[in-house]
Design a protein that fits this description.
This protein has 21 helices and 24 strands. By secondary structure, it is an alpha/beta fold. Helix 2 packs across helix 10, helix 3 packs parallel to helix 4 and helix 12 runs parallel beside helix 20. The two termini are 35 Å apart. The structure holds alpha-L-arabinofuranose (AHR). Alpha-L-arabinofuranose binds next to helix 12 and strand 21.
């Protein structure tokens, strides 16, 4: 930035802070000093015509009002991408310290968000931009919302043949696509239910009402209408009621409070169900402060938990709230966290254990740590012992995805919340766990494949050997899915052999040795689900007279020290980061929960890709 521009920014910023401090000074409680005002935040909102976005802006306003040391400048892009780019430029001109943006259009806003992120932190709200050039994304899990809506429709319609009208938000927008995908995923398992028609109504009540009114005469029987937000569901209800169509069940999303919000529509019987779709406004202010204060434990992506709202649940809600308040009361002694670890199979796991123990000690959380030694039964026994010892919170890294129903039901019955650390579970009932903190393993698999495709640039066949992690574990399942998703578009890239090395170095060695003996085709690349197995396989290749990294491209996941060493020696081609330093995030989540805050359903850590060419430079700054 030119010095003239920097000077102008400073002047505008001082003026704004002065105005803000004067305004605050007149109405501030005793002790909240205007001179302590030092965070200037810009909030660029996509529009203020949708009730959900109005609620988001209000949430930001009321959360920010709690702090005397920050001021937020608000802009409304009125749903115009061009205007939103101008808004962001104007906010930057004012000298903001951090930008919060809820984009109108993910793709179109990506370049400006990237540019701003090269200068100040950026929090992206609701609709993600492309890539990872921002500090933090906060949003709802849209696919899950669609799946949950599909589940409700299936329950409401039962076994009888059912016809569903789907009303979508803005065409092609990521939430509209993901909600629709989630709905279809569930309904595809119910062949008696068909999506009879789709209407696009841009998230607006009146558009939905007009379009449904025009369509309702020609549409034969409809049993349920799923609208991707409550406003459109209400519009559809008005249109069908006017047309005298009865017996249709309406399902929406947003679950806003207030006289015209979705919760009231459920209470009045207009909607059979809605789902709260937290706006993230409150969280964005809290995280903005944490980022600006350089706090530890900031994730890269946060997905907020939706809740189903039905007439029955509304009747129960009072008691549910009081139970959780009672449970979360501060214990008046150190918080006790029970942690059941997978084992110590890899450099990654050792670093993960160290991070958890160090972070607990740092914040004064009493940690009961059990090592599962790679066996699910040991982890289940550990969780049962935590329940008996009445810990405040249980966290664990499940060795495999399935088989946790019983023990997690026991934890729920005992009123102890469970946080999944590093690995996910595959359970029907996701109320059995509170939050997940870890990596996006599918994305790691994609990154490994993308790197391989971009850096081998081969037109002839590329034969790949895959060394999988523990069979049935989340990282092994997802890293295969992500890798295959990318290479399916390149028919010359083929996995010719795939076997598990259980994430252990010695098993990576043994398995690769066997593969090298039995494989008759030329092996061009090795894709190992972790660095340890890759390092074991490198030894097997060398013993077989091959030059790993040259004769065979080697790509692995974790980015632990051993991988950097192997890259510097020219034996490993690339490692994709999987961050084991989850301790600070986990302890923050435990403390937040115990202080009465709601936790996101998923918190995804920040990660990079390290090709061998960067190894020397990057190794020095790495903690594990
Ligand atoms: O769950 C994370 C995986 O488990 C790591 O990638 C692997 O090294 C570990 O053992």
């Amino acid at each position: 930035m030119s010095s003239a521009r920097a000077g102008r920014r400073r002047a505008i910023r001082s003026l704004l802070l002065l105005l803000a401090s004067l305004a605050l000074g007149s109405c501030q409680p005793e002790g909240r000093k205007a001179e302590s005002l030092h965070f200037l935040i810009g909030f660029s909102q996509a529009n203020l015509s949708e009730p959900w976005r109005i609620a988001m802006t209000e949430e930001i306003r009321s959360e920010a009002a709690r702090y005397s040391d920050m001021r937020i400048i608000y802009t409304d892009a009125a749903d115009s991408t061009g205007r939103q780019i101008e808004d962001v430029n104007r906010l930057m001109h004012y000298g903001i310290d951090l930008l919060i943006i809820s984009p109108t259009d993910s793709r179109a806003l990506t370049p400006i968000v990237r540019e701003v992120y090269s200068q100040i932190p950026v929090i992206v709200l609701d609709r993600a931009v492309e890539g990872y050039d921002y500090s933090l994304f906060i949003g709802p899990d849209n696919e899950r919302l669609g799946r949950e809506a599909g589940g409700v429709i299936a329950e409401l319609l039962g076994d009888r043949p059912g016809r569903v009208l789907e009303i979508q938000g803005r065409s092609g927008s990521p939430p509209a696509l993901s909600r629709s995908q989630g709905l279809r995923e569930v309904l595809s398992k119910h062949p008696n239910i068909k999506i009879a028609d789709v209407i696009v109504a841009d998230w607006l009540r009146d558009t939905a009402e007009d379009k449904v009114a025009a369509q309702v005469r020609v549409l034969p029987r409809i049993d349920a209408i799923f609208a991707q937000n409550d406003a459109m569901a209400f519009g559809a209800w008005r249109a069908t009621s006017t047309a005298g169509r009865r017996g249709i069940r309406f399902i929406g999303i947003d679950g806003l409070p207030g006289p015209t919000g979705g919760i009231e529509l459920v209470r009045k019987g207009v909607l059979s169900a809605t789902f709260t779709c937290p706006t993230g406004g409150k969280e964005s202010v809290a995280y903005a402060r944490d980022i600006l204060q350089h706090k530890e434990g900031i994730p890269k992506k946060i997905f907020l938990r939706p809740s189903k709202v039905t007439p029955d649940l509304l009747l129960q809600i009072r008691s549910a709230e009081s139970i959780s308040r009672e449970f979360r009361a501060a214990p008046g002694r150190p918080i006790v966290l029970g942690f059941a670890q997978v084992g110590s199979e890899s450099e990654w796991r050792v670093a993960n254990t160290k991070s958890i123990k160090t972070a607990a000690a740092k914040v004064g959380i009493e940690l009961l740590f059990e090592d599962g030694k790679q066996h699910q039964e040991n982890q289940i026994a550990a969780i049962r012992s935590f329940i008996r010892r009445k810990v405040d919170v249980i966290a664990f890294s499940p060795v495999v995805e399935s088989g946790w129903d019983e023990v997690l039901k026991e934890a729920k019955a005992a009123g102890i919340p469970v946080i999944l650390s590093d690995r996910a579970v595959d359970l029907k009932d996701d109320s059995l766990w509170l939050s997940f903190i870890g990596s996006d393993f599918i994305e790691e698999g994609r990154r490994a494949a993308r790197w391989l495709v971009e850096n081998s640039k081969a037109s002839g066949p590329v034969n790949i050997v895959e060394l999988q992690g523990t069979i049935g574990s989340a990282p092994a399942i997802d890293r295969t899915i992500g890798f295959e998703e990318v290479i399916k578009d390149y028919p010359n890239y083929r996995i010719i052999d795939s076997e598990s090395g259980d994430f252990f170095r010695d098993q990576g060695y043994e398995v690769m040795k066997k593969i090298l003996l039995r494989e008759t085709k030329k092996i061009d690349a090795l894709y190992a689900h972790n660095d340890d197995m890759a390092i074991g396989a490198i030894q097997a290749m060398e013993e077989a007279g091959l030059k790993p990294g040259k004769d065979i491209i080697v790509v692995s996941i974790d980015a632990a020290h051993g991988a950097f060493k192997a890259m510097i020696e020219g034996k490993l081609s690339c490692t994709v980061e999987c961050n084991p330093l989850l301790g600070p995030q986990l302890m923050k989540a435990v403390k937040d929960y115990m202080s009465g805050k709601d936790l996101p359903i998923r918190m995804i850590t920040s990660e990079e890709v390290f090709p061998a060419s960067t190894a020397k430079l990057k190794l020095a700054g790495r903690e594990y």
